[in-house]
Model the fold of this input.
Amino acid sequence: MDANTVHQVTHKATEGVKRKNSYKQPWMLHLMVLPAVILVFIFSYLPMTGIVMAFQDYKSGLGIIGSPWVGLKHFRYMLENDYFLKITWNTLFFACTKIVMNLIIPFIFALLLNEVRNMGLKRSIQTLVYFPHFLSWVTLAGILIDLLAQTGLVNQFLSSVFGIKPIFFLGDGNWFRFNIIFSDVWKEFGFNTIFFLAALTAINPALYEAAEVDGASRLKQTLHVTIPSLIPIAIVVATLALGNVLNANFDQVFNLYSPLIYQQGDIIDTFVYREGLLSGQFSFATAVGLFKSLISLILIIISYRLAYRFAGYRIF
Done:
């Protein structure tokens, strides 16, 4: 055995010992994490045994063990159901539009906020735009319903100033879609701006100094220094958002929609809620939820692969 081979074997043995010791030494940290692990196991992993209902004709009186097996019956019905295709399209439309808008608007807002030189004004603006993120959709839905009702403040303003007849904002499908997207962006864009503001602080000031020496204006510095420096974090945010492409925000839609706009506003999550909890179609609702979870898992894996490939971002 030559010296090189001996060195490699010794190195691997040393690394193995270090790795083993690294798990033994911080036992107090592992103990601190244990309650959280137990809670996740109880509330996230144990309920996953219920997915067997997707392959059964579940009867509450018979339970999971006694209910008859039907194989892929519910999945076939799901894929042949025209309404399921409709709510899948609604979900994709809402989710994809929100992803795009919640990437573009915070990006632009971060660039504009970066140009504000008065720190007091800058912090005041940041506080105002961050605040909606911390309000629940139950609270915001109540506010929006009061504002957008046919006798609400918005319709009163439009009627008194422009003479426009009251608009059914939450009862017309097209207006409802616009309100869902607009209200989500208004609520979240301030918080999403944090990612880009953090990336702005990491830009080397020497780049701006060099550009200024070369005679570049503030606009050219933004175009040739700031924006290229923000592109990697924008790629990370966009690719990681792919994992949520089938999550159109149940809380928001559930608190704002009504039977009048099911065709334009219903999404997979609200459909599962009505079919499973309200109609008692537990097996069918479980099949729909399982289908969504599998697609989301695939998209999450793809998004992390893309984030690592194009921006060097990785968790593990």
Observations:
- The two ends are 35 Å apart (CA to CA).
